[in-house]
Amino acid sequence: MRILVVEDEPKTGAYLKKGLEESGYSVDVAADGADGLILAQQEEYDVIVLDVMLPTMDGWAVLKTLRATRATPVLFLTARDDVDDRVRGLELGGDDYLVKPFAFVELLARVRTLARRGPPRESELLKVGDLEIDVNRRRVKRGGNRIELTPREFSLLQLLARRQGEVLSRTQIASYVWDMNFDSDTNVVEVAIRRLRAKIDDGYDVKLIQTVRGVGYVIDCKESD
C-alpha cells in the first residue's frame, strides 16, 4: 500500500516515513502543499497524511482542490486542537484528524483503518474504442498493444477518457493535470497533447484525440467530420 505524507517539518516527515515503511507501506513525502497536491493528483495513494500548516498551500486548500478529482482518504495532522478546525477539516472532505504531538501507534492504527476503507472506485477499466486504460494498474493498451506513458501523460489520458465525448478547454485540462497556478497562456497543454497523440493515435486509422478549434480537446472513438 502507498502512503503520501505532506509535512513541512523535516524531522517529522522523516520519522513518519521511517515508521510507516517499517510497517510495510511504500511512502512518499512532500515538504509543501503545492508539491503534495501534485503528487496526490498524479499518483494513486491508499491514504494521505496531510499537515494543516504548510508553505505555498495550507492543508485546507490542498484538500479542497484534491476533492474535485480524488476521493483518497485523508488524515489531517495539526498542532491546533480547536473544534472549529476539526469541523472545517471534516466538512472539506477530511476523513480523520490527529493532533500533534501524537503517538505513532495511534497514527498507524488510524492509517490502517483508512486504508481498509479506501476510496470509492470510479471505474477500474476505461474504454474508448479499442483503447483500454487499466486505472488501478496504470496500464494502457490499444488494439492489444501495450503503450508506455509518463505519469503526466497517464493523468491527461485518464482525464480525457473519464470525460469521453466532452470537449475540455485548455484551462480545464491545466487545472486537473498541472498545479492550480499553471499559466494556461503557455503551450504546455498543446505540447502534452501532441506527445500523447504520438503514442495513442500514430499508426491507427481512427484518431481518438481530437481538436475542437477555439475550444479545446476531446477523446472519442468517432472521428470528427
From TrEMBL:
Pfam family, one: Response_reg
Source species taxonomy: Bacteria, Pseudomonadati, Pseudomonadota, Betaproteobacteria, Burkholderiales
Any single GO CC term annotated in Swiss-Prot or TrEMBL for this entry: cytosol
Residues modified to 4-aspartylphosphate: D51
NCBIfam families: cztR_silR_copR
GO BP, one annotated term: regulation of DNA-templated transcription
Organism expressing this protein natively: Paraburkholderia solisilvae
Keyword Cell membrane: no
Name of the protein in its database record: Transcriptional activator protein CzcR
Source domain of life: Bacteria
Keyword check for DNA-binding: yes
Keywords assigned: Cadmium, DNA-binding, Phosphoprotein, Transcription, Transcription regulation, Two-component regulatory system, Zinc
Residues annotated to bind DNA: 123-221
Domain named Response regulatory: residues: 2-115
Single GO molecular function: transcription cis-regulatory region binding
Domain OmpR/PhoB-type, chain residue ranges per copy: 123-221
SMART domains: REC, Trans_reg_C
